[in-house]
Write a structure and sequence with these properties.
CATH topology of one domain in chain A: MetI-like fold
CATH architecture of one domain in chain A: Orthogonal Bundle
Order of helices and strands of chain B: HEEHHHHHHHHHHHH
Distance between the termini of chain A: 39 Å
Structural class of chain B: mainly alpha
Oligomer: heterodimer
Number of domains of chain B: 1
Strand order of the largest sheet of chain B: 1-2
CATH architecture of chain B: Orthogonal Bundle
Number of helices of chain B: 13
Shape of chain A: globular
CATH superfamily of one domain in chain A: MetI-like
Shape of chain B: globular
Number of strands of chain B: 2
Structural class of chain A: mainly alpha
Order of helices and strands of chain A: HHHHHHHHHHH
């Protein structure tokens, strides 16, 4: 049975990884058809001549960075507060927000923005996308930080306070430093979910806030193109670097 | 105010403004009348809920359920041996786990597009089969239920492997030894000892796969090509081209209700819900 299992594992990992690998290989094909001609960087060059792709990438970076900073701060504070004393309502809502189908989150945020922005005379745009991304990434941050907090002993803070530290000093000098690897891992997770999101973003984006996944999606709907292969390979490498960094941080 | 209260303030603000309020608005919309140019109008009505029983929509609901169920079953069958392999591997366990996690970190959109690239008429699969002379005309691999199922299984497979692996890892190996000492053959030990003891992982994995599959929007849209309309596409349609916000809201409420019910029913008895 052992040999069969090993054989199966090879097939399993091939199924998991070959589609992306072939996608990347054919991004270097000079032909636009799926027949190998010769090595070429044509399609990578095409990325930089496509203003939509460039603008989408820029928007995605801005949105992901701002949303990551906000959701990491809110999520870290929340996880710490829940660690001090739990709240079933808050924890339950966070779990519920994680399992809510993306499309439902998308349309409900759209409904909220349409309703609220009419009074405020605002329009859908970068701002609404950032708000939506903060809304769905907080739960991820809380889960990662909470897992880290489970390894922190509350007696350390008690000791600090017995020795005269205020609540704030105990948090800032005792618990927070122990959380740093968790915070970095949570921020990277928030960054990837934000950078990757299509479904929610497409519902709340305005005309001036097309993100990279939205541009890729529109291109894919028109049919496959080697330019998508190239940008996909770049996105995959970008995420790959993020994992290596997060693993490196976790090990440190 | 205590420090803890200050720290939880932004999260409560999130809960009220960005979680509860949108849900309340959608709930209210589901009981309103469709506006002439989209949006909503008075008066209050439960008409949208009645429309759920229209055979056209009932079929979409049932099909979404069936496809999500099929994807979950396929993931389970594919993931279990892989999890078993990793749990029993004498070394490189972490490497194998990383290999399973890797797709989770790469873009879901890119991974779905990869299948579009492989399965289309001029895609790699058809090109290779034609070059080998096995087929003479491209097979219609894309834009059908099968392609959607494949995309879902591929997309959510890691969610099934990890919880099953986590429970297998905690499994007492002496129990399996006892079974074989008592004469159980490897397969009997697998199905009568290992599988029942891995139930918490199987349940957690099934929930993690079934829930996103039930509300899937991206996969059926890209790989089903609009032909496989699932409940997620139905919602999106009502809010965009369909311009029927009340009905879209009703379907969303139904979807939320189903998801909450499933999570509650399956996970309430497990101590550490998501392993």
């Amino acid at each position: 049975m052992k040999r069969w299992l090993a054989l199966y594992a090879v097939a399993f990992f091939a199924f998991l990884h070959l589609p992306l690998l072939t996608l990347a290989v054919f991004s270097f094909n000079s032909s636009r058809f799926t027949v190998w001609e010769h090595f070429s960087l044509t399609w990578y060059g095409a990325i930089f001549r496509d203003p939509e792709l460039l603008e989408g990438t820029w928007n995605s970076i801005v949105i992901a960075l701002v949303a990551t900073v906000l959701s990491t701060i809110i999520g870290t504070l929340c996880a710490y507060g829940l660690w001090k004393r739990g709240s079933r309502v808050l924890a339950g809502s966070l779990y519920l927000s994680l399992v809510t189908p993306e499309i439902v989150t998308g349309i409900s945020l759209l409904a909220l923005f349409q309703w609220a922005f009419r009074w405020l005379h605002w329009q859908l745009g970068l701002f609404s996308v950032i708000l939506a991304h903060v809304a769905f990434s907080i739960a991820y941050v809380v889960i990662v930080i909470s897992a880290r907090l489970r390894t922190v002993s509350p007696t350390l803070e008690e000791a600090a306070m017995d020795l005269g530290a205020t609540e704030w000093q105990a948090f800032w000098h005792v618990t927070l430093p122990a959380l740093v690897p968790g915070i970095i891992a949570a921020a990277l997770l928030a960054l990837t979910v934000s950078f990757d999101d299509y479904v929610i973003t497409s519902m709340v984006a305005g005309v001036d806030s097309q993100t990279l996944p939205m541009v890729i999606y529109a291109m894919a709907r028109r049919g496959a193109s080697p330019v998508i292969n190239a940008i996909s390979a770049l996105v995959t490498v970008f995420f790959g670097v993020l994992i290596v960094v997060s693993e490196w941080v976790r090990a440190a | 105010m205590k420090l803890r209260s200050w720290f939880l303030l932004p999260a409560w603000l999130w809960l009220v403004v960005l979680f509860a309020a949108p849900f309340a608005i959608v709930l209210a919309y589901s009981f309103l009348t469709r506006g002439v140019y989209g949006g909503i109008e008075m008066p209050w009505t439960a008409e949208s809920y009645g429309r759920l029983f229209d055979p056209l929509y009932l079929e979409i609901l049932l099909r979404s359920f069936a496809i999500a169920l099929a994807a979950t079953a396929l993931c389970l069958v594919l993931a279990f041996p892989a999890a078993l392999f990793i749990a029993r591997a004498p070394r490189h366990k972490n490497l194998y786990l990383q290999l399973v996690m890797l797709p989770f970190w790469t873009s879901f959109l890119v991974r779905t597009y990869a299948w579009l690239f492989l399965l289309r008429d001029t895609g790699l699969v058809n090109t290779v089969l034609q070059a080998l002379g096995i087929i003479h005309a491209p097979l219609p691999l894309l834009y059908n239920d099968g392609a959607v199922l494949l995309g879902l299984v591929y997309g959510y497979l890691p969610f099934m492997v990890l919880p099953i692996y986590a429970t297998l890892e905690r499994l007492d190996p002496t129990l399996v030894e006892a079974a074989s000492d008592l004469g159980a053959r490897p397969l009997a030990a697998l199905f009568r000892v290992i599988v029942p003891l891995t139930k918490p992982g199987i349940v957690a994995g099934s929930v993690l796969v079934f829930i996103p599959c039930l509300g899937a929007y991206l996969t059926p849209d890209l790989l089903g090509g609009g032909r496989t309309v699932l409940v997620g596409n139905l919602v999106q349609n009502q809010f965009t081209t369909g311009r029927d916000w009340p009905f879209g809201s009703t379907v969303s409420i139904l979807l939320m209700f189903a998801v909450t019910l499933i999570v509650w029913a399956l996970l309430r008895r497990q101590e550490d819900p998501l392993v």
